Amino acid sequence: MKKKRCPFVVTAATVKNVAPARRQVPTRLFVFLPKTVLFFQFCHGSRAVFFSFFFFCNPIPPPHPHIFLFPHSTMVPHIIYGIIFVMLFFFTIFPTAEMESVGLTVDHLCSRYLSADTDYVMYQLKSTSVKLLIHSAMPFIYVLFIWLMMWANPDEMMVVQRQPSPLGETVWDVFCSAAGTLLIVAAVTVFYWAQDGWSNHPIAKQLQLLTSATLPDWRSVATNINDEYRRDTKIIIRSNAISTLVVTESWIIKTNMYVHNIIPQSEALLYAYKIDTKEVITDTLESAEFVNIGVKPQQQSRIKPFIIRINVVHIKDLRDRLQQPILVMPSVQFRTLTERFVEAFKEEVAQNPTVPSAYVPDEGDCCLACLQAQPDVKIAKYCLDVDAAGSVLPEQERCQPCGCRPLWCVSCLATWFASQQQRAERDTWLSKKTTCPMCRARFCVRDVCYLEGRRTPPAQEGEEEVLPETEQ
Questions:
Q1: I want to staple 207 with a disulfide (CB 3.0 to 4.6 A). Which of 94, 97, 218, 269 is the partner?
Q2: How far apart are CA 261 and CA 303, in angstroms?
Q3: pLDDT under 50: residue ranges of the chain
Q4: Are the CB atoms for 39 and 30 separated by under 8 Å?
């Protein structure tokens, strides 16, 4: 009798994007099993992963039989189910923005049990416990699912082998035992935390360290935090998928998956010591600057120091909510994207020739934008109207002569130039064009020239660089 081959088939197909401007490349993966069809779609540009499960009574042939990722005889259903559960486990811990928008998060699914509007501290106590139980139960759920599938469809789940692998059976037995043990330990841990009104929870023990004469126990500290959290004076900054920074009038709270860091503002010492750049995926791949801020108590105490990592764009909002200033190390400079572009714009303009000008600014003449500096640049057509390949540009894309007298300083003109560009194309801003703020003549960075005698002299080699004043 001929042995039955594993009826597992995987096909892949690429479909065109319905929104070309978003530059996404959706990939569809079809997984066919008798009586089961699994459909996945990965949107690489937005990190969205959608799962759809369709069940049919009869086997359905693949839409593209000639496309196979794996041979029929080598595919094991356990592997595919394992990959699916690993992805589910990953996105349960690190939910994407798309999953949060449709409510596929632990907090939203347990919203009836978890509510931060009235009791923020109790919400954190219950949230960490629920997440611990759900995360610990997922391996055991996978084991139950495999056992159920082996009982319901033994022919599909069993791989025909002449001799079963002892190592594979041992690994599976160990995994099943570990999954059950993990769930039992998590359940016992949560039961211990919930005793005596959650007094054994790590967050409650940490609040106990913050007691004072006016706040004699951890419940008093929790009540004070809840009162301030309900006010509009707080600020909430999300660092990543599992970490959030909450700053109220008197408290600094950093929430993580299971462990939270809490410190009073009056006892906190904050210092910015590092800025790094990270690629962030939104509609497109962008780079963003993140500042690392160390937080530690001013005096010796049992409060452990911790680190806050936030986007530079949130640093001003954070400073406005803090009682103490942030100490900034000399190597740290908070610069926005526009400020960085202005510096690069000035370097390019400094390489252009200077232009003579009969216009002599009076003492009272100032830049029309900032009203502080005197005009020092003029738009004069110097570019060759060719593209990167050396081909002549069409008439509608060529730069145009500008007849305006000097009205702008180089910093304001660079800021205007940046404001007219697409943020997603910021890596090529210097090669783009825009129009004069007054006459709307088209120009590029090669057409911006310093006036004679008004060029900003570059820093002399060997001179000490003057660092910006830091907050003390």
A1: 218
A2: 9
A3: 1-75, 160-162, 282-285, 457-472
A4: yes
Q: What is the DSSP string of 357-386?
A: -S----TT---TTTSSSPP-EEE------B
The CA-based angle 140-145-151, given to 5 degrees, is 130
Q: Tokens 């572009």 appear where? A: 341
* DSSP-based three-state secondary structure for 31: strand
Q: How many residues does the chain have?
A: 472
How many C-alpha atoms does 302 have within 13 Å on its Cβ side?
Answer: 7
Within a 10 A sphere around the Cβ of 10, how many other Cβ atoms? 18
* Predicted local confidence at residue 132, as pLDDT: 93
- Chain position carrying tokens 């592997």: 79
CB 139 within 8 A of CB 179: yes
Task: Tell me what pLDDT residue 58 has.
Answer: 37
Q: With the CA atoms of 246, 247, 250 and 253 taken in that order, what torsion angle do they form, in degrees rounded to the nearest 10?
A: 40
Cα 365 to Cα 374: distance, rounded to the nearest angstrom: 6
| CA-atom Rg of the chain in angstroms | 31
Q: How far apart are CA 223 and CA 162, in angstroms?
A: 66
Separation CA 249–CA 322 (nearest Å)? 8
Residue pair 289/309 in contact (Cβ under 8 Å)? The answer is no
Sign, Cα dihedral of 115, 120, 125, 127? positive
Q: Is 372 exposed, middle or buried (0-12, 13-18, 19+ CB in 10 A)?
A: exposed
Token match 């597992």: residue? 8
Tens digits of residue pLDDT in 138-182: 999 999 988 888 888 777 666 544 456 788 788 888 999 999 999
Strand pairing class (306-311; 327-328): unpaired
